[in-house]
């Protein structure tokens, strides 16, 4: 009995390390997989790795930049340090993918997108926001009203850890009430526009207004 208890305790103690190792392995494999099939593999945290490109460059404290431009009076660029110095908002919500998988009670933390838009001085002719990513392919859009919601973040942390590369770090978008494809990974650009421009998956048939349970022909519980 004591031996079994010892093994159980060892399993609990080593589980976080094993999960981090699995995340690292799958993330690295996904980076080198031109087929995208590694994106179908779940990790221990319930998430699945997926990229629309065969590889994604890594960004760190020195190389990461987030550019804000378009219909604004004060375009600018943020470093990771700049973003971390701003007031942070933490929220815990379920994450729902349009393909069906769901990860409950997932913490995200970062800067409210509305704060960055206010600092940039959005012009009266603006009606939407477009997001681009340093994978060189992915994009997303929200209406200006959607982008100003309190539950839309430029996220720096996920599951109470800095967002790693495989999860779209060091900075990703988080749109809590919408299907997870709206939460663009590897965020590098925020451009204020006059109208919504369909993003990567919308151009391939997904709904632009991707409210969980009210779009894409699905009836999932809201997040």
Automatic annotation (TrEMBL):
InterPro entries: OxRdtase_Mopterin-bd_dom, OxRdtase_Mopterin-bd_sf. It comes from the Bacteria. Residues 55-201 form the Oxidoreductase molybdopterin-binding domain. Transmembrane segments: none annotated. It holds the Pfam family Oxidored_molyb. Gene3D superfamilies: Oxidoreductase, molybdopterin-binding domain. This is Oxidoreductase. It comes from Streptomyces dioscori. The lineage of its organism: Bacteria, Bacillati, Actinomycetota, Actinomycetes, Kitasatosporales.
